[in-house]
Amino acid sequence: MHGASVTCPLHNWVLDLAASQAQGADVGQVRTYAVNVIDGRILMIPDLVMAAAE
């Protein structure tokens, strides 16, 4: 992570975390999931992840 972006180590794409859009010369977007942060741990909500996979 750097600022409000994250870089994919596999593809070297830079993705904006707020918009889930690729930045710069990259094209596309990624799926986003709702999460909770509890005691410093990032927890995904399983029902929402499974529904998005269908």
Q: Summary?
A:
The protein is of the alpha+beta class and 54 residues long. It has one helix spanning 46-53; strands at residues 5-7, 14-16, 35-38, 41-44.
Beta fraction of the residues?
25-35%
Mass-distribution shape:
globular
Work out the helix count: 1
Biggest sheet details? 2 strands, antiparallel
The helix content is 10-25%
- Gyration radius from CA atoms, angstroms: 13 Å
Assembly state of the chains shown: single chain
Strand order of the largest sheet: 1-2
Structure notes:
The protein is of the alpha+beta class. It has one domain. It has 1 helix and 4 strands; from the N terminus they run E-E-E-E-H. The protein has one helix spanning 46-53; strands at 5-7, 14-16, 35-38, 41-44. The strands form 2 sheets. The chain has a two-stranded antiparallel sheet with strand order 1-2. A two-stranded antiparallel ribbon has the order 3-4.
Describe the secondary structure blueprint for this structure.
Layout: E1 5-7, E2 14-16, E3 35-38, E4 41-44, H1 46-53
Antiparallel strand pairs: 1-2, 3-4
Summary keywords:
globular, 1 helix, 54 residues, alpha+beta, two-stranded antiparallel ribbon, single chain, 15% helix
